[in-house]
Predict the structure.
Amino acid sequence: MTNPNTDLTCIELVELITDYLEGSLDSTEKVRFETHLQGCEGCQNYLAQMQTTISLTGKITEDKIAPTALEELLKTFQDWKKPNR
Amino acid sequence: MRGSDVDTISDPGSDSSEQHLIAALRAGDDNAFRELVEKHHNALVRIAMIYVKDRAVAEEVAQETWVAVLRGIERFEGRSSLKTWLFTILTNRAKTRATREGRYVPLDVDDDPDSDIGVSLDRFHPPGHDEADHWSAAYMPQRWDNIPEKRMLSLETMNLIMQAIASLPDNQMQVIRLRDVEGFTSEEACNILNISETNQRVLLHRARSRVRQALESYIVNRN
């Protein structure tokens, strides 16, 4: 049973998803969000896709520091240590 | 100049391993410094790049940041985590450098004209339809949990995500790098970038929506 005055549309849910994941929806909005989600497979999948996206983004690995840059910084560290000793 | 390097950010970041690390750096422990550099240097360069647009200049800014960290470590009070402090120094220096070279574009400028929605509108039933603004069955998002993990974590997928991030507008790129790649909290990211919580959330939303979209097209095309 959809009630156009209180029910979210899928478009609205898509746009609120970050606010939801960030915990920045107020309690009424959160209830509306979760109520819509319960009855909507597309939005459940969308939320899961977003969570997968975030988790995969956290797994990208940067290339390692170039040996020359590392050497230079270690030398900087040695220089910094001298007056400290 | 000095003022920007002082840790005036008030988020608690000092657990005991952090205290150990700071003590080790102060004591001149080579391994502690090497480990920290190996962990963060390239991330610093990448973030500096967003401001200065030049690899060699970004490398210089990152190097200067480490020098500033060493100079400041004695008076570092741990009001923010060492990592937040490090990235704050970096962004301040990168901004200064970009300003000096006439390249600085403030992050809060909304320079993304086609970002009003995270998903193309033709995937929803049109206005006037019984289910207007709801997913149209043919374009509904699919489940990804049946895709082998090996494929989701493949080099190809990771490169695709990196490309998607690299093609974002600067301000979105900055926020998603700090939040989702580097793992900073929203409060830390706001402090590092000196932007409001709301602004940060909008930029993060757009960035994540675009990366999701890129992943989805890739997955759909491969299936």
Observations:
- The longest helix of chain B spans residues 197-222.
- The mean pLDDT of chain B is 88.
